[in-house]
Amino acid sequence: MTDAATLLDFDTLKGRIEAIFARAGLAPLHAAALARVIAAGERDGAKSHGLYRIEGCLRTLAAGKVSPDAVPELLDDGSAVIRVLAGGAFSPAAFELGAPLLAERARAQGLAALVINDCVHFSALWPEVEALAAEGLAALALCPSYATVAPAGGTRPLLGTNPFAFAWPRPGGTPYVFDFATSVAARGEIELHRRAGRPLPAGWAIDAQGAATTDPAEALAGAMLPFGGHKGSAISTMVELLAGAMIGDLTSRGALDALGTTTLAPRHGELILAFSPERFAADRPGDPFAAAETLFEAILGQGARLPSQRRFGARETSLRQGIALSAEETALLGRLEAEGA
Amino acid sequence: MTDAATLLDFDTLKGRIEAIFARAGLAPLHAAALARVIAAGERDGAKSHGLYRIEGCLRTLAAGKVSPDAVPELLDDGSAVIRVLAGGAFSPAAFELGAPLLAERARAQGLAALVINDCVHFSALWPEVEALAAEGLAALALCPSYATVAPAGGTRPLLGTNPFAFAWPRPGGTPYVFDFATSVAARGEIELHRRAGRPLPAGWAIDAQGAATTDPAEALAGAMLPFGGHKGSAISTMVELLAGAMIGDLTSRGALDALGTTTLAPRHGELILAFSPERFAADRPGDPFAAAETLFEAILGQGARLPSQRRFGARETSLRQGIALSAEETALLGRLEAEGA
After folding, report:
1. Is B7 near chain A, with CB under 8 Å?
2. Which of residues A235, A264, A282 is at a domain's end?
3. pTM of structure
4. Does A132 lie at the interface with B, CB-CB under 8 angstroms?
5. What is the number of structural domains in chain B?
6. Is residue A214 part of a domain?
7. Do B305 and A234 touch (CB under 8 A)?
8. Are residues A1 and A124 in the same domain?
9. Whether A279 contacts chain B with CB within 8 A
10. A25 and A139: one domain?
């Protein structure tokens, strides 16, 4: 971190981000919720969901594609499905509203779902599954994005990068968490190759004619490919079905058609499932958390990694010494503050 | 089908398989349930789960590793989690017992889970998710198997081939269904390469020292690899957690340790989730089933396939002309009938 110009504690960074959003016209509820997830990304070294996201959110706001002040509405019919209508606002406040009842319902029923409808989405899913893991629950979160990925065997963008996130609570430590795009690579990675003038690895993308390409510009004009061939393509399709069609919200195709661009954050829905291991394992021999630890130890014991370990390492460093911003990041933050002032 | 020696209708084939199991000592409940799934595999041209499976089941029975007559027990506390204790018997009868209540609960609660504990497992998962799709529900089914797959970055068998199956109901037609191993390839495919003296494709397996290999014999002595690198490995780990640790049953490592061999069917648990799209989409604009059809049409419209299309094609042929058995398969069936007589 030789270029670290600034060390900020979490609350200071969050407060500065929150002020930027508030000055841009976001209601306090949303400014605070966005600042929490963006500061968390920066804290964890997850730069693609850190400060870098602020401008995209502001652009979406300036374009009138997100409600600055819709108050999320919680609908609960007492079933295992809880719903929050986000009213066209960003998703984080909607999640924060629904999460406590989701956790309560999962503990009561064994499992429960939170549907978020009509939200504008830009954030990683790990803050959400981690929040549920902190309540002792396993959690799965899915959402479409916008059509930039061709199905396996196809030729044109149809599926989204459709993230798939999961967390399992680990008593006394950070949870087991993964959160990945169901495309081979994120769109941002292809853009980075283009800027660097580097060819893409084979299998990442196809061009506008549907032929395999390693040219980043052709890939951006064509389509990305799902990870894992037809299996990843099937999982991505499942995300469209469960977190798009099933919840009465847009698929990635519908979201792109409605927005008309991939430069703003898309509006669609999200599905989060929460499971109570204590309920699922009730009256069974053994402890589900101990069994999981045995599995994790065996993974680590053969030299493999657990997902998110790098992110948790960065978090530990940030919590100890402060969140390190590079000179460039410090300048970005200052510029955003000056623009809004 | 030039070597087709026999054409049998479904009930005839099922009856002959059922008789083989009954003569081998399986209680009528289990003989019938096994015959249904094996005849369905043969009907669908899913040869790896067809007649070929009979001998493995009989071997597991002869080894005393499956209860021939345990009566599955349904436990229902009124929550969203229904449980069937299989008592060490094969899983299909346990699923059949729990499925109607799972469907009823999913319709009432929006989603529900069926846990099957202490079952011996050899069957594909598509018969189960398809049965729920026939009830108008989306369904997800997961189970561990036994440790034959190394985690990404690892060197030794730990995970199972851990199948992951999903179905979405399509009004008036066969459902959208996928059912795949979370390993790159099935163990049987590696065995087929060994017998044919053909090298494996790169990326399928590692040898006993953890080094990449294309030698099938070395792969069988080493470990298979997950599909899709660290993403597939994470999904496979999730299967171990949700359908092993969480439900108070064995992981793939535990199942192999308990059984001591991969030549018999493993005993562990299974997790099936059922979702009611009608409940999830209630009071939302649009029809979830119509939105899904738009997605499927777009996939097919660009020349990509839907999963299971080949299997449904084989099913259609079988239902029209009868299930075609090759001379070899006819001989196998005859031999199994003679041995049991």
Report:
1. no
2. A282
3. 0.97
4. no
5. 1
6. no
7. no
8. no
9. yes
10. no
Inter-chain residue contact A241 with B81, CB threshold 8 Å: no
Q: Are residues A239 and A151 in the same domain?
A: yes
Q: Is A242 within 8 Å of B113 when comparing Cβ atoms?
A: no
**Do B113 and B271 form a contact (C-beta atoms < 8 A)?**
yes
Measured in angstroms, the CA of A42 and the nearest CA of chain B are apart by 23
Shared-domain flag, residues A83 and A52 = no
A312 — contact with chain B (CB < 8 Å)?
no
Q: Which residue from A minimizes the CA distance to B228?
A: A228
CA distance A132 to chain B (A): 15
The amino acid sitting at A264 is L
CATH number, domain of A19, equals 1.10.1530.10
B241 → closest Cβ in A168, A233, A302? A168
For residue B52, tell me if it sits in a domain. Answer: yes
Residues from chain B that touch A180, judged by Cβ atoms under 8 A, are 231, 234
Per-residue pLDDT of chain A (341 residues; tens, 9 = 90+): 445 578 999 999 999 999 999 999 999 999 999 999 999 999 999 988 899 899 999 999 999 999 999 999 999 999 999 999 999 999 999 999 999 999 999 999 999 999 999 999 999 999 999 999 999 999 999 999 999 999 999 999 999 999 999 999 999 899 999 999 999 998 888 988 999 999 999 999 999 999 999 999 999 999 999 999 999 999 999 999 999 999 999 999 999 999 999 899 999 999 999 999 999 999 999 999 999 999 999 999 999 999 999 999 999 999 999 999 999 999 999 999 998 76
CATH of the domain at A266: 3.30.1370.60
Kindly state whether residue A287 falls inside one of the protein's structural domains. no
Q: Which of B109, B244, B295 sits opposite A79 (nearest CB)?
A: B109
Q: Do A274 and A179 share a structural domain? A: yes
Residue B103: which domain range? 4-183+226-284+321-340
Q: Is the residue at A295 inside a domain? A: no
Q: Does B249 touch chain A (CB under 8 A)?
A: yes
